[in-house]
Amino acid sequence: MLDRLKVRCQLCEKTNINRGTFDEHIKTSCSEYRIDCPGKNIGCQWFGSRNEHDEHTKTCLFEKLRPVVDILYKIIENQSLDIENLKKQIEQQAAELGQQKTEIDQQTAQLEQQKAESIQQNIQLDQQKTKLEQQTTELGQQKAEIELQKTQIEQLKAQLQQQQIQISDIQSENQTQKNETASIRKQITTLDEEMNKLRSAIHQL
Fold first, then answer.
1. What's the burial of 179, exposed, middle or buried (CB within 10 Å: 0-12/13-18/19+)?
2. E strand or H helix at 44, and its extent?
3. What is the pLDDT of residue 88?
4. Residue 70: inside a domain
5. What is the Cα 67 distance to its own chain's centre?
6. For 32-87, what is each residue's pLDDT tens digit?
């Protein structure tokens, strides 16, 4: 009911305006309502009644420049979009670089660990090499001792062979002596027999 009440605009003095449409009257049709120039967004500072608006718009330098400004705004908008895209690309690249840096740091840490392990392995290899050299020296000494023992064994074998020859010679001499002894005993037996015969002959005389 209140929206149907008739009111009067205090700006343009128009009457019989429905209260419910008064705001629309002010915003769209009130001739005395003060509005900004459409070029305000590009720098125009004009502010006046709607009646003066059309006349001002015809002479407003900012409105005349609007096509160029719109083109510039469009360029700026496109450049802003390009800048945003570039920012996103840069952020993405920064994230990728950060990830790559993390991977590089991890690889560097792994390389450092491998380097430390390699140094430790080299130390162990050097120790093993020293042990092998010591063992090689000991083996050389043992080999020399074995060669010396072999020489001594060969000398002992030669001495043994010489002793065996001497034993064989002694055995041969013993056998010869045995043979000579047996021959002498045989001769003695023969002499004893002859002596006995002589004794018997003497007794018979």
1. exposed
2. none
3. 93
4. yes
5. 62
6. 888 888 888 888 999 988 888 888 988 888 888 888 888 888 998 899 899 999 99
Helix (H, G, I), strand (E, B) or coil at 7: strand
* Closest C-alpha among 86, 80, 90, 39 to residue 61: 39
3-state secondary structure of 6: strand
Residues 196, 203: Cα–Cα separation, whole Å: 11
The whole domain housing 2 covers: 1-32
Beta bridge partners of 17: 7
Residue 98, domain member (yes or no): yes
- Which residues are within 8 A (CB) of 62 and not within 5 positions of it... i.e. 6 or more apart? 37, 39, 42, 43, 44, 69
Cα dihedral sign, 45-50-53-55: negative
